[in-house]
Amino acid sequence: MTDDTGVLHRDGAGPVADFLASFGGDVDAAIAALRAHHGGTPTASPAPRRPRRERSGDHIIAVTDLRKTYRMGRQRVAALGGVSLEIDRGEFVALTGASGSGKSTLLQIIGGLDKASGGTVLIDGVDIGRLGDAKLSRFRNRTIGFVFQFFYLQPFLRLVTNTEVPGMFARTPRKQRKAQALRLIDEVGLSDRSRHLPREMSGGQMQRAAIARALLNQPAVLLADEPTGNLDSAAGASIIELFERIRDEFGTTIVIVTHDDELAQRADRTIRLSDGLIVPSGVVA
Ligand SMILES: Nc1ncnc2c1ncn2[C@@H]1O[C@H](COP(=O)(O)OP(=O)(O)O)[C@@H](O)[C@H]1O
Ligand SMILES: [Mg+2]
């Protein structure tokens, strides 16, 4: 059996076999990587039909009356109390607010990494709350890129391979995904580091690497939770510049969570949360 690039596989050829091979066949490591990157499981089954699209105007993200309640034993924590917002295609939005105000919860639900308790999220016209797990994983892999504070690069993979991971799930032929990875590595300014391991890079470089990886499948939406939270101010500023460039060059819609008001000011728009609700613009919270 051969894969798209003609490489012979002993058994179970395809992206899952590729992925396992890239981890030396270590299933636990592969699953850990999956959880970190996609929150789902890989599938080698035929592509499902495209999710049904609803009309959401020109808004690539449309959130309506979103609610999230966490249950902790008998206690209930209302993390989101009815959030509605719309984000235009190609917009760069900063989500701000005090610690515990619900920023991460909102970003995770928009990205399909967590389920809402009520309300809807349309991404590119798709009601993601209605997708089953397999369809949701696939949708996330194609449409959404994630960047986190602590990078979540695989420590034992070189930069180029780390960057290729989302392409393995998308069943992109090996040569093509490597070419895409190298192009993005160049785009984020790391072309002289493509053979490096994460531990051989600085924090700012690791975050650039994570951004390159998030862009591999040309997602329409890039979500980043405190992407500068672990960086000094100069490295943080250059990450924000990189987001601006990505929006301008690829038209990617970008939503970042940040504590840093100075960085937030550089986005096209700021949305502030307080106690699980959006603070109306003009109100100081
Ligand atoms: N997994 C969870 N279980 C229980 N409560 C949670 C969980 N995640 C978040 N919360 C609570 O929900 C609220 C919002 O949290 P979060 O979205 O992480 O805020 P932020 O990112 O703005 O700091 C907080 O009160 C937090 O304690
Ligand atoms: Mg948070």
Bound molecules: adenosine-5'-diphosphate, magnesium ion
Weakly predicted, low-confidence segments: 1-28, 34-48
Helical fraction? 25-40%
Order of helices and strands: HHEEEHEEHEHHHEHEHEE
Structural class: alpha/beta
Strand order of the largest sheet: 6-7-8-3-9-10
The average pLDDT value, as a whole number, equals 84
Task: Bin the strand percentage.
Answer: 15-25%
- What general form does the structure show? globular
Instruction: Measure the end-to-end span.
Output: 61 Å
Largest sheet: 6 strands, mixed
Radius of gyration: 19 Å
Number of helices: 9
Number of strands: 10
Keywords:
single chain; 285 residues; alpha/beta; four-stranded antiparallel beta sheet; 10 strands; 34% helix; 22% strand; binds adenosine-5'-diphosphate
Can you summarize this structure?
This protein is an alpha/beta fold and about 280 residues long. Helices cover about 35% and strands about 20% of the residues. A hairpin with a 2-residue loop joins strand 1 (about 60-70) and strand 2.
